[in-house]
Amino acid sequence: MGQHSAFWNAVETIHDVVYFSPHTKERYGALGLKGYWMGYFASRSAALGTPGPEVVIATFHGFSPAIVRRALPDAWELSAPHGGRDAILEARLGLARDALAPLLDGLGPLDGLVESLRIAQRGLDLAGKPLAAAQSAVPPTDDPVGALWHAATIFREYRGDCHLAVLTTAGLGGAAANALQVGTGRAQAVQRELRGWTEDEWVAAQDSLREWGWLDESGVATEVGTTARDRLEDATDRACDAGIDLTTRARLVTLAEPLRTLARAVADSDAVPFPNATGGQRP
Fold first, then answer.
1. pLDDT tens for residues 10-25?
2. Residues of the chain with confidence (pLDDT) below 50
3. Which residue, 149, 112, 178, is CA-closest to 14?
4. Residue 246 domain boundaries
5. pTM score, two decimals?
6. Domain count for the chain
């Protein structure tokens, strides 16, 4: 990755606590949502409003359309008697706050770091970044831990939006992008099941990557494939930088180390395991 890799890895790790909390099914279940994945798709997409599956398939990219359609739009109807979208957003923030607070306790005050992140957000060009734009429109919270997570989430989705644009420009559909992650060791073999792809869809994706010379017969990335995957990360960094003014880029460099300190506390606690399905790297 590029010069800001420490920053992007840190915000990814801080954000990801909501996916690995042992309380996710319980919290979302109390709002009428059924199972882990309904909670995942509803909570992550709620910043967009109450979108249908087509919007989420387009913006999330790596998931099988079938797994998205099993969750949406039913999630909105089921959660409506319990507070709907707003309650889902609050539950998500609560999961993040509860996961992070004990891990960050004793690492110093967060107010200055949060304020610096908020200032840096003003230097982002959100054109073509729908998930980052949606998250930036979610009302901020006053408590420092929740505010830190919210700020990290905006930056995490910003890079994710850029990465999706790079993947689709390269001709990589959701299944192929995940198969390449597995082939390079950035994700585990269960990635197919976690992302909802059928065996036939996965084999077809692997075959397309073999035609490009990116995977060998066993599904492991070739040298060409590994190089190509690294170049996709570099292209993502360039796409990110293209939407960040020079002053903000310099600010991100100064924020990388304090954020990495917090992210390492998260990683060392195993609140976010590595490797994991998001493809994030240990800070």
1. 999 999 999 999 999 9
2. 1-2
3. 149
4. 5-268
5. 0.96
6. 1
